[in-house]
TrEMBL record:
Organism superkingdom: Bacteria
Pfam family, one: DUF5675
Domain DUF5675: 5-131
Protein name: DUF5675 domain-containing protein
Length: 150
């Protein structure tokens, strides 16, 4: 199994991407703006090849265990990112919810100069088991690339 994030659009302070697992589109992702110089909690993660793991520590994990009790095995963390820590694929709708993490959604909107994702919880529930399966594979890979379409 392989996973890929393809960035397709950039706006004033946001970046819109598509998540693929085994070459099949799963959902949209929302990140902060791509910046040459990182601003903490306001910068998209870099392009490259990284890994996924389950992180079972911290407050976000405790909250998700409460909200997604039957499904939750840990936060899906993107690892191996230079100068970034604790980057999770999680729920949220606007760049105010990202803090540098990709947010998932089944749809997107363009409002006030930025992208937003919609139906985030439904998208998360659908992709979470697939990402857990990937995270459990040793030496798994997540490729992040830019291919701006609009």
């Amino acid at each position: 199994m392989e996973s890929k994030i393809i960035r397709v659009a950039q706006a004033k302070e946001s970046t819109l991407s598509q998540l693929y697992i085994n070459g099949i589109f799963q959902c949209y992702l929302l990140e902060d703006k791509i910046r040459e110089v990182k601003i903490h909690s306001q910068t998209a993660i870099p392009t490259g090849v990284f890994g996924l793991k389950l992180n079972t520590h911290g407050a976000k994990n405790v909250n998700y265990k409460r909200v997604f009790a039957k499904q939750h095995e840990g936060m899906i963390e993107i690892v191996g990112l230079p100068n970034f820590n604790f980057v999770y694929i999680h729920v949220g709708n606007t760049i105010k919810d990202t803090a540098g993490c990709p947010l998932c959604g089944f749809g997107f909107q363009f409002l006030d100069g930025n992208y937003q994702v919609t139906q985030s919880i439904a998208a998360y529930k659908m992709i979470y088991p697939k990402l857990v399966a990937l995270a459990k594979i040793e030496n798994n890979k997540l490729t992040i690339e830019n291919n701006f379409q609009f």
